[in-house]
Amino acid sequence: MTDPILQVENLKTYFYVQDGIIKAVDGISFSLAPGEVLGLVGESGSGKSMTCRSIMRVVPLPGRIVEGHIYYRGQDIMTWPESQMPSFRGSEISMILQEPMTALNPVLTVGEQIVETILQHENVSRGEAQVRAGELMQLVGIPSSERRLQEYPHQFSGGMRQRAMIAIALSCRPQVLLADEPTTALDVTIQDQIIRLVQGLQEELGMSVIWVTHDMGVVAQLCRRVAVMYAGRIVELAKVIELFENSRHPYTHGLMESIPTSVSREGRLVPIPGQPPNLLNLAPGCPFEPRCRYSVEECRTVDIPLRPVSREHFSACIRFEEIWH
Amino acid sequence: MNAQETSFQDNGQPLVQIRDLSKTFVLGASIIKRVLGRKPEYLRAVHKVNLDIYRSEALGLVGESGCGKTTLGRCLLRLYEPDEGQVLFDGQNFLAVEGAALRHMRSKVQVIFQDPYSSLNPRQKVNQALGEACLVHGICTPKEVQERVGYLLNTVGLGPDVSDRYPHELSGGQRQRIALARALAVEPEFIVADEPVSALDVSIQAQVVNLLMELQEQLNLTMLFITHDLRLVHYVSHRVAVMYLGSIVELGQSEGLFNNPLHPYSRALLAALPKIDPRDRAKVAAIQGEPPSPINIPTGCSFHPRCPIAVDQCHVDDPQLRQVGDGRLVACHLIHWGSL
């Protein structure tokens, strides 16, 4: 196997608030191979966005990365001084966000924002950067790109804004793209277009992608491997077909059963009982235990690490061998 | 499914009859703009919609953002006054009643909004919010209020302990249950549920939507379920109406419509839904382009600029919603001619 382009080891990102510690990301490890699309799935508050922000080292206060290593091409970026980060962000690893309206600058034209990004990272003239901006707009499928470069974000539709955002993210040819729910705010036909766009670009440019989402359909369509997150931890990690057909964690099963996959009124959904845990001062043991139909005494007391099910499949369920044998 | 269809239509006259309902918003009519001689723009949100909703039926209304589904729902509640058309509720024109009669009718027609953070009064405790509704509509006497609140909370699966809390002390799922209890407090016959679970996480969504369906059956409620979520609308609805740029383009039994969509827009919409099967992957997008602005609606069939099979007539003639067999209604020239 080739060396991973990105490797995260025992990452812990905690928020220190008045009432205690919120363990937003609590000791997760995974790797990303060159040219791979990895899905990061989970519900709100499961720590998927904070994982991305930690990789970029842009965790908002009062949060900070308290432990762990993030290796990019074998180098631990956690040891780098902050002064080295701006040239790293954007040109090596880039990020697209859910709400492009808040991520784009409303008082600059879209063209200026792309040109600015290119000039920031590369030693080219303004003229060259402008030509590149036009090419990028075409690459991401924005029609009449010359005119649209002169327009402001508010003149773009939601789908076009997300395309512009992708153009900015790709402007310096990053090796890794972190996509933090980029299609959640979009309509289904536009989401479909954006997914196919990123799919095509990823194959064409050979990028690695981490795609954060709560939509199992998007995962099924796009990802090679999937990490399922719950309460700041990865509870299951597997290749996509293995995860969909042979899951070994009760939470993943619960998620699948909660989605109406062409179910009509005749067949009822099976919801996961209870609510996601409060991450403030979380009790020891498996965080899913209070909602789990298979829980036993041991689940409440022992911290359960990810264990291998097979060579590329890992589960954090203490009972996966006996439940699914 | 055919048995079910007849059962609802056998309930006699539809509970809600929408006739040629239209709503256009005027934009940019501010004094300054008028002084500057700018003409106001017109946003056509709902255009000549006809729809019957039968007793005890859950009718799904699905479409992308800006298609007018929320405006249509709000016109039924008279939160917007429609420009044209009629809404008959139990045979009576809901748009014509005023005063005490309107208040009485409003207790029969209730609503659940998407965001329970903004639809519940943050300064009212749960028991106040629920109790007030009962008292205003004379459902119970002040003495009976506590008992009634307890009953309502129990109905939506919450314990009596939440009655003393403020909305901010509740989770999203609990808040949406309170919004549901609030709607049920006045014993309505018809509920407009506008994206009731879209703000909730997947695992909580399933809990709330199951509750909504159970109560709808138990209490014999008629429901208009508005959502952009195709999987959810399939699951919840007996019949489904697909909306595009202010018009209904297809209407039919949920099962039939999802298995065999006829209108080119319904087909595109369903094809764009990411399939929950990693072995079945598409390479190209199901449909190109974006919906046009409702301020500049295309002539003829409003879907023709994005339609893969449009012919000349589609550019000029607006197709009507017509029956094409098996209770399915479609607004498409090519289907009416039998060329598809």
State the domain count of chain B.
1
Which segments of chain B are poorly predicted (pLDDT under 50) over 5 or more consecutive residues?
1-6
Number of helical segments with 4 or more residues of chain B? 14
Number of helices of chain A: 13
Low-confidence stretches of chain A: none
* CATH class annotation of the domain at 6-102 and 175-295 in chain A: Alpha Beta
- What is the total tally of β strands of chain A? 12
Looking at the overall shape, the CATH architecture of the domain at 6-102 and 175-295 in chain A is 3-Layer(aba) Sandwich
Largest interface: A-B, 48 and 48 residues
CATH-level-2 architecture of chain B: 3-Layer(aba) Sandwich
The proportion of residues forming helix of chain B, as a percent range, comes to: 25-40%
Reading off the top of the CATH hierarchy, the class of chain B is best stated as: Alpha Beta
Task: Determine the N-to-C terminus distance of chain B.
Answer: 24 Å
Gyration radius from CA atoms of chain A, angstroms: 21 Å
Which strand order spans the largest sheet of chain A, edge to edge or round the barrel? 6-7-8-3-9-10-12-11
Average pLDDT for all residues of chain A: 89
Tell me which oligomeric state these chains represent: heterodimer
Cα shape of chain A? globular
First-to-last CA distance of chain A? 29 Å
Radius of gyration of chain B: 21 Å
The sequence of SSEs of chain A as H and E is EEEHEEHEHHHHHEHEHEEHHHEEH
List the helices and strands and how they pair.
The complex is a heterodimer of chains A (325) and B (340).
Chain A: E1 6-17, E2 20-32, E3 37-41, H1 48-56, E4 63-72, E5 75-76, H2 85-88, E6 93-96, H3 100-103, H4 110-121, H5 126-139, H6 145-149, H7 158-170, E7 176-180, H8 188-205, E8 208-213, H9 216-222, E9 225-230, E10 233-239, H10 240-245, H11 250-258, H12 297-301, E11 307-310, E12 313-315, H13 320-323
Parallel strand pairs in A: 3-8, 3-9, 6-7, 7-8
Antiparallel strand pairs in A: 1-2, 1-4, 4-5, 9-10, 10-12, 11-12
Chain B: H1 2-9, E1 16-27, H2 31-35, E2 41-53, E3 58-62, H3 69-77, E4 84-89, E5 92-93, H4 99-108, E6 109-112, H5 116-119, H6 126-136, H7 145-155, H8 172-184, E7 190-194, H9 202-218, E8 222-227, H10 230-236, E9 239-244, E10 247-253, H11 254-259, H12 264-272, H13 312-316, E11 322-323, E12 329-330, H14 333-336
Parallel strand pairs in B: 3-8, 3-9, 6-7, 7-8
Antiparallel strand pairs in B: 1-2, 1-4, 4-5, 9-10, 10-12, 11-12
